[in-house]
């Protein structure tokens, strides 16, 4: 019977066959231990000399790293294993014998591993990160579907940008100028006026020349947009969403979290409501913490966000940023028109902003004024203005950066390990 490693727990004391790759091996006299993987998990195969023929035992000692096999044996319980079971090998067939696999069981430099990303993905820790990423995506669909959001796919090629064109990739669209999308938000706003609650999940691009551990050139965004929704309600949905995702990973990715040596004690505390601090209060707090160089009206950098987040056990919302450092579409704060109704959600443990969101301007005259103030081409945003001409309503939305969220939940230091094939400032290969 052919099964996967993930299914092996259902076949205790039964003989099965698994298609797998050899990640490593070791011998102890009359026993060989084969470390196997098949994409669904990792498992040990034990080859005992007295229980197999001589050729099989000798072949087990000779087989090379990353060779592919059909391996047959009996699944047995093993409390020493993370999985709780292993295979007592009876025979195996080599499908392909690999030679000189470049990523050996030793330390390699990051650049070497990134050059071999297509192979590095096979390692146990990288496998765990991608499994956690997959769980976050699965939990995202569950959450939005439970709240009756409709998934809408915005275009990747656009004629305009929600936040200006200074950090966009320019291309030609036949005889027109076009840009790779930095957000699907403007299109989701249009969709929200048709379907009420909508979300998207897709790639976005920023031509920002940054090399920090928090930045990628291409990254995936999960964006939600809601009609008849004011800012406070949007914040509640955001914290419920993040809480749902964290809970799902804790419930379904224990093996992966353990493989990454992730301390889950802080994750276990994550549940709504989250603390909130205004931008004004954040400035005052930072000055008290010794950040005397920060002035009102400036955006926060990584050290500032980390200092604020370290004051809380949970993700924290920083609300009501100055109008001048935020995009044109954000609704003014009625109690202070120098600020807008917006919030950034800062993850604990130094992982920075994972969500940005706001209430959107719903007044046509004010939006036209903002477009002019930001020196944007009004004709390019005519469809966006139509949303205020024909049945405008209060509406709010947000965008979550998937890779930063994976980095935080998985406890990975650099976002380059949270994308299967990351695009960095100086990396377009593989």
From TrEMBL:
Localization: Cytoplasm
Domain Aminoacyl-transfer RNA synthetases class-II family profile per the UniProt entry, residue ranges: 130-430
Keywords: Aminoacyl-tRNA synthetase, ATP-binding, Cytoplasm, Ligase, Nucleotide-binding, Protein biosynthesis
Pfam families xrefs: tRNA-synt_2 (PF00152), tRNA_anti-codon (PF01336)
SUPFAM superfamilies the record matches: Class II aaRS and biotin synthetases (SSF55681), Nucleic acid-binding proteins (SSF50249)
Top-rank lineage group of the source organism: Bacteria
E.C. number(s) listed in UniProt: 6.1.1.22
Primary enzyme class: ligase
Catalytic reaction list: tRNA(Asn) + L-asparagine + ATP = L-asparaginyl-tRNA(Asn) + AMP + diphosphate + H(+)
One Gene Ontology molecular-function label: asparagine-tRNA ligase activity
Main location: cytoplasm
Entry-linked Gene3D superfamilies: Bira Bifunctional Protein, Domain 2 (3.30.930.10), Nucleic acid-binding proteins (2.40.50.140)
PROSITE patterns: AA_TRNA_LIGASE_II
PANTHER family with a match to the protein in the record: ASPARAGINE--TRNA LIGASE, MITOCHONDRIAL-RELATED (PTHR22594:SF34), ASPARTYL/LYSYL-TRNA SYNTHETASE (PTHR22594)
Similarity-based family: Belongs to the class-II aminoacyl-tRNA synthetase family.
UniProt xrefs under HAMAP family: Asn_tRNA_synth
Subunit structure: Homodimer.
Protein's name in the database: Asparagine--tRNA ligase
Organism in which the protein naturally occurs: Staphylococcus marylandisciuri
